[in-house]
Write a structure and sequence with these properties.
This protein has 337 residues and is mainly alpha-helical. It folds into three domains: 37-123, no CATH class; 124-248, Tetratricopeptide repeat domain (Serine Threonine Protein Phosphatase 5, Tetratricopeptide repeat, Alpha Horseshoe), CATH 1.25.40.10; 251-318. Helices cover 72% and strands 0% of the residues. The protein has helices at 9-25, 32-48, 54-73, 78-101, 105-122, 125-135, 137-142, 145-158, 165-181, 184-200, 214-227, 231-244, 252-266, 270-283, 291-302, 312-325.
Length: 337
């Protein structure tokens, strides 16, 4: 082997490049133990998300995301970079969900874009599907409904029929959007798919905002059956779901009660429907009485016959919603499907 000429510019350039690459590889700033601790903190945030008000959660979520972002800005091993992308997707999804609850729709859409990009960057099909299924809530509540159908279906197709909780979630999201859209036959087919997938999969911990426990499946079925006018089935799943919620929780039980009120309106019990809706809104703690709750309560008024909307019970519900909106003038204007 011939010795390299002393002072050879090419050899010096090759050696300098090698040293530079070695230094870059050594720049990894996070250990496996640090990643595990960060994972644990984010899991705790996911637990808190189930019962803490969205404004408070935004502070926690943004704080954790800032640390993830700082780590991701440095060169990390591929396996660490994937985990950081996963963390970013989870945190961005919960930030988007918080903003949606508060009625900050434009910001919510942008954060869902970020969450979807991070999930796609992670390469994890399950996470990509989960973010899309979660994102379907935004057009489900605020329109256009076709967007919720597309996102739910896209998430379901990504899972390729594997019996996972994400696949069940995606099917349930698609089904209730189809039902609210008026596509009852298609909704019924996808409901059956969601139930079958759920029966075959592991459900995960119910104390995790990124899980899909039975109570959440029942919440989605409640939305589907309520939209389809199947009050008896809706009431049955509403009662089953309410029995599964812990004492300390978020607004899901209130959403179930509001869907029960919509069922009463469908069954021509207008006064009872308005009274139940008004009582439900007033019983929710002020910090949880967010824009999304008001939207669902307005849906009770929306299904009443026009001649009933001026009745006393309907006027009282309208007044309650106006009062609960007080202080929320900074929220973005409502958008309808």
């Amino acid at each position: 082997m011939l010795p390299e000429p002393v002072g050879d510019p090419l050899a010096e350039h090759v050696e300098a490049a090698r040293r530079s690459v070695d230094r870059t590889l050594a720049l990894s700033t996070v250990s496996a133990a640090q990643m595990d601790l960060l994972d644990m903190r984010i899991l705790e945030v996911r637990r808190q998300y189930l019962y803490e008000p969205p404004t408070q959660m935004l502070r926690s979520l943004l704080g954790e995301l800032e640390e993830v972002k700082c780590l991701a800005a440095d060169r990390q091993p591929a396996s660490v970079q994937v985990r950081l992308s996963e963390m970013t997707a989870v945190l961005a999804t919960l930030i988007a969900d918080s903003l949606m609850k508060l009625g900050k729709l434009a910001s919510s859409r942008k954060w869902y874009d970020t969450a979807q990009s991070a999930a796609d960057d992670s390469g994890r099909v399950e996470l990509r599907a989960r973010v899309r299924a979660q994102r379907a809530m935004l057009p489900y509540y605020y329109g256009p409904l076709e967007g919720a159908v597309v996102l739910g279906r896209e998430a379901r197709l990504l899972t390729r029929g594997r019996p996972t909780s994400t696949a069940a979630f995606a099917a349930a999201a698609e089904a209730r959007a189809l039902a609210r859209q008026g596509s009852f036959s298609a909704a019924e087919t996808v409901i059956t798919t969601a139930q079958r997938l759920y029966e075959q999969c592991e459900h995960g911990s119910p104390d995790d905002a990124f899980a899909f426990p039975e109570r959440r499946l029942l919440l989605y079925l409640s939305g589907a059956y309520t939209a389809m006018g199947r009050s008896s089935q809706a009431r049955k799943v509403q009662a089953q779901a309410l029995d599964l919620y812990p004492e300390r929780t978020g607004i899901d039980p209130a959403l179930l009660h509001l869907e029960a009120a919509i069922c009463l309106a469908h069954d021509h019990s207008a006064a009872e429907a308005c009274q139940l809706a008004g009582r439900t809104v007033l019983q929710v703690p002020a910090e949880h009485r967010t824009h999304i709750l008001q939207e669902r309560a307005r849906d009770v008024l929306g299904v009443l016959p026009p001649r009933i909307r001026g009745a006393r019970a309907a006027r009282e519900l309208t007044d309650i919603l106006a009062l609960s909106q007080a202080g929320g003038d900074s929220l973005e204007p409502r958008q309808r499907a």
